[in-house]
Structure formats: structure tokens, C-alpha cells
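Justification of resources, computational component.

The compute hours requested in this renewal are based largely on the per-chain cost of generating structure records like the one below. Each record pairs the submitted sequence with a full C-alpha cell output. That output is archived, and it is also reused by downstream analysis tasks.
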Amino acid sequence: MKLRPVRLALPLLSCALLITGCRGGPPVINVPSDPAVLHGTWQGELTSASEVSDATFGNGVVYLLQREAAPLAPFPGASSTPPKSSLGLLALDAATGTELRRVTVERAIAVRFRPEEDGAPARLLVLRYVPDSGARMALAELDPITLAEQKQTLLPGTETYHFSADGRWLLPGWGAVTPLDTRTLAPAALPEPLQAELRLPQDPRTRSVGWAYGDRFLRVISRSSGAQPWTFRSLSAESGNAFDAQAQHASVCSQISTSQLTNPADMVSLEGGGAALAYEDGTVELRGEDDRLRQVVNLGGCSPAVLRVDGDVLTFADPQRGELGTVRVSDGEVLARRTTATLGTSRPPFLLAEGTVLVTRSMPGTAPLVALEGVSAQAWTLATRTHALRLETRATWQSKTTYTSVGTAVLDGERLNFVATAYSDRYELKPQSAPPLPVTWRGELRREDGEVVARLGGHHWSGTPAQSVGLEVQELDRDFAFQGTLKR
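The structure output for this chain reads:
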């Protein structure tokens, strides 16, 4: 972003502390010799502070719920204007990553694609909180092409609802709850074995029931009495068949004993009523509808995989080893596999389709914000936007509570004026020591006519030559939030 010549004013730099002092008086920061003081040369790269909180896929389109806000540190006496934030719903072409459409969605927490079925059109489902409703939630239905809202239904009660992994259900809370069909909001039709388990009384001493594995299975933990060991089994929401959680194979990982394989890390139902169970030793058990072991697929390593099934093809993703691959269910043969560096930097991956995973960045940095990885090659990425910032400052002690820092700033090649005042009423500033909580600061970038171009803020500790900085561009409605570290 090219900025016209501006003046940088950082009006206050203040300690936001939870302590009032320590033995022998307040902590001391020496000005300007303390390495953390805004003095000398500071520089760094600020990267996009946006994140993908949810994703879904349907009809060749990837949908992202993208949240953006600059991490401006809390600052006493700062402007009453709240930090900017944005929550956008993006539709991207799955083949190229090209943005097709974007709309703002307020208070949304989850998104799912519901395909066309029984004459009902395909819909994009958005779960959101409703303002001024006593913390109630609503289900919005959007046209998947235009992203225009077609319908919104206020959900009953004040429960915290969430989607099942496939978007067919809404679950009102956690534990032994009956899911609601997202088309009708009536109780979902469940196989009788699951209904029977939900009807039984719950006793925390002997019995616990809850949904697991993307809410595709009802997990039952039980024992006959408080002195007996717990047993774990999972009932498929598709077939009603039950599967013992204990592995039926000997561990293939030397660091993990067979007795430790008591709970699969992930499960999916298979055609014919069976199930695939992923374990911590890097294996996948393929079981029949009778819960008998048919095949053990050793994926290598000692880490569990996330699973998805499409007919006779099982897709697996191992974030710890950065591996994506496919397995033929009928005989357990590994069809393809590929190692990708981006998968290891991701939050839990979104397996969107057969052999396809959507990777989202797990922390700020230079890694792509989003990458679509295929089992044969990377399809596309959304690169991280950056701003380069450099400060040349001179700090001068003024009093026990104040020092000033004056110099120049260079933002993306644009040379600016830099003026800052540091203030603390809980630290003693001395001219030519280490606080337990950081000093926080706020500032603004202004044009010559006084228009605010950007707000920024950050914090530093005593003795550490690093400033954690957040930058918020005011004139943009998206791609406005950045964060990073400035160092000497």
C-alpha cells in the first residue's frame, strides 16, 4: 500500500500493569540504556493478522470464514474508538483460488455447505449469534453462488449450537443431546441403537455419552460400578453399528504400547456399515460392520491421521508429519501420498474432498494464509500480505513518569516523522532493571491534514530488545490488520 507523506504521532506510551510495586519501591526502567526502550534503530516486518476460523466446500467452491483484527494492546487513556474488526465470508474457485465473491457476516461462528437434496436447493449454512436476543443463536441460509441471505431462523433456547462435520445436523450443546436436522430443525432421524443410548439415564460415576469424531459417532463410556475399568465404544450415526475403541492390532510404534491404544484419534463410517479408525501409532484399522478387523494400514511414523471417506477411497492427513494421502478401502492399499511443508503449520486441517486438504495458517508469520493441497501437488495458496516498518529514534528522559522518543519512521519505503511520549505511573523511569508485565503503547499515522491513516500499538518488556507491534489501516475494509515484531 502506497501512502502519501504522513506524520507519525505516538501520543502515549504507558505501562498497563496489574501490580502496584514491589519491595523497595516500583520497578525501574533506565532511559535510554534499557534495551527495551524506544531508542535507536527498530525494524521488522508486519504480516497479516487475519485468520480462517472455519471452511467448507461444495460444487467446486471453497468457502472461508475469515476474521481480521489488529492486536492493539490494551492502553489506558487511548482513543475511545474500538479496534477495527471484520468477519468476511469468501467464496473461492477451488481449482484456482480465485476470489468469486465476498460478503460481511456479523457474529458468525461456523459455515457449512448443504448440497441439493430431494428437490431442495443447495444452501450455504451460517451459524451466528443474534444481537439483543439474550445470547440466542440463529441459522442463516445463503445462496451458495451470490451469498445473498435467503432465510434466517432463530434457534430455540440459549444453548451453544454447533454444526456436525457434514452440516446435516445442529447440536444444541454437548453430551447426550439429540441433534436437529438443518433442513427442518426437527430432531434428526437416528438409528435405533443410538436412540436407545440417548434414552438411558446418565450417571457420571458409571456412564457418559457424547458425540465425537465430527459428531458422526455417539461415544459411550461406561462401567458396571465405580471399581471397574471404563469401556469405550462408538456407535455410527449412519449405520447404528458399534465399534470398540480399543485397538485390535499390536502397536507398530516403539514409543507407544498396545495398551495405550484405547481411543482412536479419528473415525469415519465406511460403505457397508464398517468403520475406519485412526490410532496414535500411525495406523488405520479397517473394520467390518461386525467390528471385526479386516485390515491394518500402516501409514508410518508415530502420529495419528485425520480421515475422510468418499466411496472406496479413504483420504488421510497427518499434520505432525505433514503428509497427505489416499487409501483404497476395499484392500487397504495406499494409492498415493505426498509430504507438504504447509500441512505441518496448519490448524487441524479441513479435508474438503477426496485427496484434498485445505491448510490454514496456525500463527502469524510468512506462511500462506491459506493453501489448497492435493495428493499429487499443491493447487494454490493465498499469500500473506506484509508491511515493512523501520524506526530511527532517540529517547530522552523527562521525569520519573515520562520519557520522549523522537525520530523518523519508514513504512513500506515512505519516510515519515516519528514522535512518541512514554508515560508510566507505576514504574519509576530513571535516566542513565525488569518488570513482570509489559509496557504497552498506542499511536497513530496521520497525513499532514490530520487525517488518521493507521493506528498502531504494541508492547515491550524491560531488558528485551523487541517491540511486539500491531498495525491497523483505517481506510480499508479488508486486509487492514497486521502484526509483527520490531527489533534493534
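Confidence is low (pLDDT under 50) at residues 1-23. The first helix runs from residue 192 to 199.
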